[in-house]
Amino acid sequence: MGECSMRQARNEVRKLDILTATMRDMSRTCQRDISRCRERLRAGIIPHMNEEIYQRIQAQLELLDLSERRASMEAGLGADAIRDIRRRQHTLPRLDTLIALAKPLRTSASWLAFGEGDSQSLRPQQVPIVSLVAASRFADVPAVVSTDDAPVLGVSGLPSGQYIGLRVSGDSMDRIAPDGSTVVINISDRELRPRSFYVFRQSDSATFKRYMECPARLEPFSTNPTHEAIAIDNDIDVIGRAVRVITDL
Q1: Cβ contacts of residue 213 below 8 Å, gap of 6+?
Q2: How much is the pLDDT for 33?
Q3: pTM recorded for the entire structure
Q4: CA–CA separation, 196 and 75 (whole Å)
């Protein structure tokens, strides 16, 4: 190969090296940009206006009569977490910060971040504790659905429905509801579903049991093997489905 041809080849190699280096640098830039985006997504940076988020936080603070400092401390974020959101108008809060704040503010992180759902979805619902219910065979509980002058219990996170609370008496359901615990019943949900738990009524008597099919029966859920299933007949009505058991330690 002549000297001219060799010089031309070297020039082409040099051009190729420069082009390769340029492409490599461009690739690194793209990779860095992608990495930044991934980091922001992993960090939970929310693409919504800080001002709107703070307005929702402020609305809950006023509703619950909480200070910024107290709510921040109860969220485990340090005393200035909400103050920092208010002051840093161009810095969006992290999603994990809003998740932590949702608990003392008694709402959901999705409502704080996006205004989605009901702002009061996590506020305690006042459930009247109306009577005892037998966790055995049917027992007399004439006031089982009377809420007049009943004491109330605040219960958070309940879905839409109408609720009463019943004190459990007996041990036929002690695997989920020991004697003396409180079972929260949604009396607007009476559709029977296998393996779900319900309170049933027969005349002025009621019992707390698990509904099973084939054959249809009310089963105990107990550590005591002496309890037996109860056959369902036309005289048995559904009061409501059990959605929560509350036990004092």
Answers
A1: 194
A2: 44
A3: 0.53
A4: 34
Instruction: Report the C-alpha gap between 76 and 83 in whole angstroms.
Output: 14
Cβ–Cβ under 8 Å, residues 115 and 56: yes
- Look at residue 164 and give its three-state secondary structure: strand
- Other Cβ atoms closer than 10 A to 100: 18
The strand pairing partners of 238, in sequence order, are 200
Among 114, 145, 167, residue at a domain's last position: 114
Do 217 and 196 reside in the same domain of the chain? yes
84 lies in a domain?
Answer: yes
As for how many domains the chain has, the answer is 2
**Residue 5 dihedral angles phi and psi, to the nearest 5°:** -65, -40
**In CATH, what number is assigned to the domain containing residue 58?**
1.10.260.40
Question: Which pLDDT score is estimated for 142?
Answer: 52
Domain of residue 211, CATH code = 2.10.109.10
Q: For 192-229, what is each residue's pLDDT tens digit? A: 999 999 999 887 788 999 999 989 999 999 999 999 99
Judge contact between 242 and 183, C-beta under 8 A: yes
Q: Cα–Cα distance between 108 and 120 in angstroms, integer?
A: 8
CA gap 194, 178 in Å, rounded: 22
Domain membership of residue 203 as a residue range: 125-246
pLDDT digits (tens, 9 = 90+) for 150-177: 788 888 767 778 899 998 988 999 999 9
